[in-house]
């Protein structure tokens, strides 16, 4: 029994086999395209330094406390994010309307997964390109051409999108514990080793000094209002918080594991991998006269150039894109799990049917991104193409709003005794730092960036 007199619930979908399994699953969710594809390209588009600084501040005062909040809420509710928020809302404040936060999260999940799957499809296509030696003797012009001819071909990208999404639904259909654990345990260390090898290459062969300066020398005049919102949004995206993915995983977490320590470890690993990826990409970009603000194709153009110049490049390239595909896969699984769990609990579907339904809806939405880079690349409104709008809506608006609601719920609505019983029954210093941050700093930071984004401050 916890302090508030509620017997600990058990999950309806099984539990992680061990604490390590949970850490691996959350790390697998966090580390993905966000670190290796998205972070370098949006840092490049937003002028580097100042953007990176805002991103790092957001990771610490926004992302980390929200990750802890999501896990604790998930573990306490032990259901899909909608039901968990409804249930805890009733327990803590007498109103089940908090379920809306979970529902909003399911919506963001569909949107994010829809484009995520398309970009992951690019990574799969690059496995084939690398293995068939396409990048031998590559030049800046040829890598650009390879990328453009892929992205602008809706049939090719649509096919890989379909295959990637089907593979994701397959793991989801078999249940979370089995598939993910094994994939992450092997792939994640391999990915880190390979990234360190590439970092060595970049340090020796790239323009490392210029890369470091670009990333870490803050030039605030280059940071726009949108840039700040993107930095905040990316802190959510890269840590998988703000939509309930981590909440859904927390629901399967055995009681008695330290949520705080685990969150710190995951956040540190995720941030380190993003910084290493950027430190690989930019020295190559500058040494080869590529444009740092090339956009979504940045990684797909800079890395192949490097591979073409190193001995054994084709093998290294193939391995890297295989690992990137796996990293994206474990992330996509976490994007699909909340909606699937909801369909099982609320609609009474079997796991396989639920996964198929979620994948079907996502697949159709994903076609918008497929077409954004090809047939409909000329159609722009508001922020740009369909992809630009889906990306901005989900990452810079929905995730921050979802995260804000989650942290307000954990910091203000939940009783101190309830959060302490999940995070630290002794309510030690770390707990008090979390609670203060969750109540004041995190909401203030999110609101400030959003207000600045719409031009009010
Ligand atoms: N964090 C993943 C990445 O960096 C993407 C991701 C997985 C995600 N689950 C999420 C983003 C939930 C937002 C919400 O690639």
Classify the secondary structure makeup into a structural class.
mainly alpha
Instruction: Tell me which CATH architecture applies here.
Output: Up-down Bundle
| Domain tally | 1
Q: Could you list the spans in which at least 5 consecutive residues all have pLDDT below 50? A: 1-5
> What is the name of the CATH topology?
Amino acid/polyamine transporter I
Q: Brief overview, please?
A:
The protein has one domain (3-453): Amino acid/polyamine transporter I, CATH 1.20.1740. The chain has 18 helices and no strands. It has helices at residues 19-30, 33-45, 49-77, 81-93, 99-131, 140-151, 154-174, 176-205, 208-216, 225-239, 245-250, 259-287, 298-309, 313-347, 351-372, 386-413, 416-423, 429-453.
Describe, in plain words, how this protein is organized in 3D.
It is a single chain. Helix content is 77%, strand content 0%. With 457 residues, it is an all-alpha fold. Bound molecules: tryptophan. Tryptophan is lined by residues 29-30, 32-35, 112, 237-238, 240, 243, 245, 331, 334-335.
Key terms for this structure?
single chain; 457 residues; Amino acid/polyamine transporter I; 18 helices; disordered N terminus; binds tryptophan
Blueprint of the fold:
Layout: H1 19-30, H2 33-45, H3 49-77, H4 81-93, H5 99-131, H6 140-151, H7 154-174, H8 176-205, H9 208-216, H10 225-239, H11 245-250, H12 259-287, H13 298-309, H14 313-347, H15 351-372, H16 386-413, H17 416-423, H18 429-453
The chain binds tryptophan.
């Amino acid at each position: 029994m916890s302090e508030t007199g509620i017997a600990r619930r058990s999950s309806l979908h099984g539990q992680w086999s061990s604490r390590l399994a949970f850490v691996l699953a959350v790390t697998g969710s966090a580390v993905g395209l966000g670190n290796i594809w998205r972070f370098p390209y949006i840092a490049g588009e937003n002028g580097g330094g100042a953007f990176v600084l805002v991103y790092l501040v957001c990771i610490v005062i926004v992302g980390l406390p929200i990750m802890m909040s999501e896990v604790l809420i998930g573990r306490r509710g032990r259901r899909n994010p909608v039901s968990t928020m409804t249930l805890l809302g009733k327990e803590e404040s007498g109103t089940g309307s908090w379920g809306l936060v979970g529902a909003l999260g399911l919506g963001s999940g569909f949107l994010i997964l829809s484009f995520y799957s398309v970009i992951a499809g690019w990574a799969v296509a690059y496995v084939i390109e690398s293995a068939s030696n396409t990048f031998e003797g590559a030049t800046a012009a040829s890598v650009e051409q390879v990328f453009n001819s892929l992205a602008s071909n809706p049939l090719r990208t649509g096919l890989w999108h379909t295959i990637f999404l089907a593979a994701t639904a397959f793991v989801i259909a078999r249940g979370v514990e089995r598939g993910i654990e094994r994939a992450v345990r092997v792939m994640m260390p391999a990915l880190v080793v390979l990234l360190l090898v590439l970092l060595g290459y970049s340090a020796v062969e790239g323009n490392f000094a210029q890369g470091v300066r670009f990333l870490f020398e803050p030039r605030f005049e280059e940071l726009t209002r949108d840039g700040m919102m993107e930095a905040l949004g990316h802190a959510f995206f890269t840590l998988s918080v703000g939509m309930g993915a981590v909440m859904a995983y927390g629901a399967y977490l055995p009681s008695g594991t330290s949520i705080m320590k685990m969150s710190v470890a995951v956040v540190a690993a995720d941030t380190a991998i993003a910084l290493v990826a950027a430190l690989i990409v930019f020295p190559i970009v500058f040494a080869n006269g590529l444009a740092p603000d090339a956009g979504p194709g940045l990684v797909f153009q800079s890395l192949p150039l490097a591979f073409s110049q190193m001995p054994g490049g084709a093998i290294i390239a193939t391995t890297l894109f295989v690992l990137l595909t796996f990293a994206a896969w474990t992330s996509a699984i976490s994007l699909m799990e909340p909606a699937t769990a909801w369909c099982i609990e609320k609609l009474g579907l079997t796991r396989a049917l639920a996964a198929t339904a979620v994948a079907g809806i996502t697949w159709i939405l994903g076609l918008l991104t497929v077409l954004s880079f090809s047939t409909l690349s000329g159609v722009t409104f508001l922020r740009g193409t369909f992809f630009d709008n889906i990306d901005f809506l989900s990452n810079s608006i929905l995730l921050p709003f979802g995260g804000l609601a989650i942290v307000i719920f954990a910091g203000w609505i939940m009783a101190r005794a309830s959060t302490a019983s999940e995070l630290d029954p002794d309510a030690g210093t770390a707990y008090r730092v979390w609670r203060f941050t969750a109540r004041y700093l995190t909401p203030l930071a999110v609101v400030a960036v959003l207000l600045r984004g719409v031009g009010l401050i």
